[in-house]
Amino acid sequence: MSAPANLPPKEELLNRAEEILKQLEGGPWPSHVSELRKTRYPLHVYGVGLVARKSPWGPAAVKVEFLNTGVLSRWARDWIPGGGSEVHFRVFHTPGKFLRTDFLRKITKISRELGVGLIELVGQTGALVLNLTPETAEAMVDALREIGTDVGGSGDAIRALNACVGPALCEFALYDTLKWYAEFHKDKRVNDNIVTPSYPYKFKIKFSGCPLDCARAQRGDIGFIGVWEGAPEVDQEAFRRKVEAGEVDPEKLAANCPSGAITWDNERKELRIDGTRCKKSMHCIRTAFPAIKPGKNRKIAIVVGGHVKGRFGGKMGKPLAVVNSVDEAMDWVVKTVESWMEHMEKGVVKHKDRIGDFIMKVGFKKYVNEILGLKEVGKPSLHPSLRAGAVLDDEERKMYAAWASKIVEEVFGRRA
User: Fold this and answer.
1) Residue 384 class from Cβ within 10 Å (0-12 exposed, 13-18 middle, 19+ buried)?
2) Helix (H, G, I), strand (E, B), or coil: what is residue 225?
3) Residue 357 to residue 330: CA distance in whole angstroms
4) Using CA of residue 300, residue 149, residue 117, residue 134, what is the dihedral sign?
5) What angle do CA 364, 313, 195 make, to 5 degrees?
6) Strands, E, within 296-384: which ranges?
7) Worst-scoring range by mean pLDDT, 93-107, 217-231, 337-351, 358-372?
8) Beta-strand (E) ranges in 6-60?
9) What values do phi and psi take at 149, rounded to 5?
10) Which of 40, 115, 209, 366, CA to CA, is 20 to 30 A from 250?
11) Are 128 and 106 in contact (CB under 8 A)?
């Protein structure tokens, strides 16, 4: 990136950067700038970027011996006074982001001695990131391995897995997300592809214990979401007590059901839920728990092809099927990845094609019937949180176009 036009002289640029940084330290709230001053982070680069209103960083590469992934680096652009560099290590973290205090002390010690004294915990992916300088990279790898962790999970590989807190802290968890995370991570087929980039693009696996989807499994290349069959369980007596206490408005609860599966019988004071229409939004459960709970016949739903960034734009994961065991789920992942790689060799999949892009190219039906070898798909009943930018495939476009034409014909007496 070329230098922005009309930049002041270097000394004035640094002075203006410091003025902005001091402004960010003002106010009643804790300041990230004040905290960064306690570290060896190249803060002047950040400040100059704020003055220029452009990213001050340029991409770079740092070679670390016997390490293929997990290392991200960037260098200050040549118009930054004083220069600077920043290297990130993505460090393996534990399921559900539970970190022992002795482990945190060891990580903190490594960060202070071999890094810049800065640790990042990324909420969306659960990543644990250490900042360092290129000179200490190999020494830090050895130190991390000595305390029982490692570097990995970036580049065109399986990224660091992500799981919600599951049954450890959440009453809504419908399966043991922490166990599934651990079982996936220790499987050689998964672990090898976390530490060695060999894919067309990145690949994310996420585990959410229920349809509230705290791990954002619907935005992963493959996600696993706890669901149940049929309607939620309703303890009518407990529900009546909540209504009488004014804790729940039953008519509002029914009106807010996205699929209209809930009705309230005011005479009998009973709440009825049609299991064939329930979309598992969990709105009623969150509102009236524990009077309303998930059903007892619990399953794990697979969703595939979700991502925020991809060749054809953001996509939500498509509900694919339900599974009952980790081994069964692992087979689905392996089949999908192997076919993704095979189609890259055939030239169908290009570099930077995510799984969702691959499925769009071959077609969802072909992916299900021919690649996975399924004649019938037991799709889970889910309530997807559709967001702006979600991309529809050709089959979905035709379905919605036909639906719109039918509405126009019914309302106006003619087809669109």
Assistant:
1) middle
2) strand
3) 21
4) negative
5) 80
6) 298-304, 318-323
7) 358-372
8) 57-60
9) -130, -175
10) 209
11) no
